[in-house]
Amino acid sequence: MATAITRSPGNLAGCELTFKDRAPVDERRARLQHEAYRRALADLAFDVVLLPELSGYADAVFVEDVAIVLDRVAVLTRPGAPSRHGEVDAIAEVLAEHRPLERLSAPSVLDGGDVLLAGDVLYVGQSGRTNHAGLKELAHTLLPHGYRIKAVTVAGCLHLKTGCVALDEGTLLANPDWVDTSRFPGFEILAVDPSEPFGANAVVVGKSVLLSSAHPRTAERVAERGFEVHLLELSEFEQVEAGPTCLSLLVG
């Protein structure tokens, strides 16, 4: 059975923000939404691991950013926000149960939310949280494992996966205003509804897609392509610049 690693949310009001203004967060509602998210993963046949809240690290619930999990290896990242560096050691022990580990080091900075796997290519967003040194070190680390790396320009959003995800090997759900889709030759681009710029962030498992209920028009576009869309209320996490992929590390 595949595993989904998650972490209980803590003080979301203290999260790092880049493109959104700080707004009140209902911590009780966030916990209920996180519980529903975990149930949705369990319904997709994942064994869901819930790690405890990590005291002093408001962003630790966003486990996607501290590691990249691939078929044969997991890479521990060096997050772009210095306040998050302590989260990496906290995830390493549980990941070591599933994969051999590699680790990025200074001067690299790289968030897992900037890394999108499509086929044997890892597309790496060049955002405010990931630098060129991080891209180069990741490429060097993964070359022996057969993965190729391609840089993608990201502008106007936090991470690459804020603006695009691969629905399958030939289709990209994307916000073209935020992501340079010309870096994905051979992909059909399914654009989000213009009124839902954050609608491209989704967890894709086979033909099932977990998408925020804040993006119903984009959900319709995805469903029209034959995917089974499951809408989740994630309003409290969206207040702090997060979406569905941010909340889990999926280990096949």
Secondary-structure element order, N to C: EHEEEHEEEHEHEEEEEHEHE
Counting structural domains, the number is 1
Strand order of the largest sheet: 2-1-15
What percentage of residues falls in helices of 4 or more residues?
10-25%
Could you state the oligomeric state of the chains shown? single chain
Provide the low-confidence segments as ranges.
none
Which fold name fills CATH's third level, the topology? Answer: L-arginine/glycine Amidinotransferase, Chain A
CATH-level-4 superfamily name:
L-arginine/glycine Amidinotransferase, Chain A
Major sheet summary line: 3 strands, mixed
The CATH class label is Alpha Beta
Count of DSSP E strands?
15
How do you describe this structure in short?
It is built from six helices and 15 strands. It has 252 residues and is of the alpha/beta class.
